[in-house]
Amino acid sequence: EMQLVESGGGLVQPGGSLRLSCAASGFTFSTYSFNWVRQAPGKGLEWIAYIRRGTSVLYYADSVKGRFTISRDDAINSLFLQMNSLRNEDTAMYFCTRDEGTAGGMDVWGRGTTVTVSS
Amino acid sequence: SYVLTQPPSVSVAPGETARITCGGNKFGSKSVHWYQQKPGQAPVLVICCDNDRPSGIPERISGSNSGNTATLTISRVEAGDEAAYYCHVWDYSSNHHVFGGGTKLTVL
Questions:
Q1: Which residues does residue A37 pair with via DSSP β-bridges, in sequence order?
Q2: Residues in chain B within 8 Å Cβ distance of A109
Q3: Which three-class secondary structure state does DSSP give residue B8?
Q4: Which of A4, A15, B26, B94 has the most CB atoms around it within 10 Å of its CB?
């Protein structure tokens, strides 16, 4: 069964940092691109970061550019999101997703991990 | 930045047909994808690439894309179809994924 499992969420103060992880199983991790997508409480989906397979191509939403860094380790089938300078508005459920390519959809989603930024 | 516009809500009686629209500029050149999200759950891809159904998605669910509007159609609506639905495209000009604001489907 193809699976993505996020971890690393929690409560952090404004200005703080957090590192999210996403462990993949059931498919060949290195052959896919991935995203992080977040959802603030009661709100819609917001894409925030993308990493392409096999290359160092990275894209970020304007809302997180310069503060968040997406990375991957194909040796351990894992995706990461380093979040720095966190703000109250970063409070959300964070999902990792498998990307079927620029013309495809996000066909596998994790259950998400919750990040709460509050003093 | 590229914007996708969805109606906030759609209501339909059981057995009827629900149509959820997604508006965007020059849609015809983009592949549109649709996700279903039930409360407390992760989104699920229900339509890929305008009108392809992933394995396990019922034939009652279909998609179309023409001009500046994409449409998700759910025929013979059931209580279990009640959920939020999001459209999504890849914007080649900005290299960003873009989601619509979401539509809450209510089954009366």
A1: A47, A95
A2: 42-44
A3: coil
A4: A4
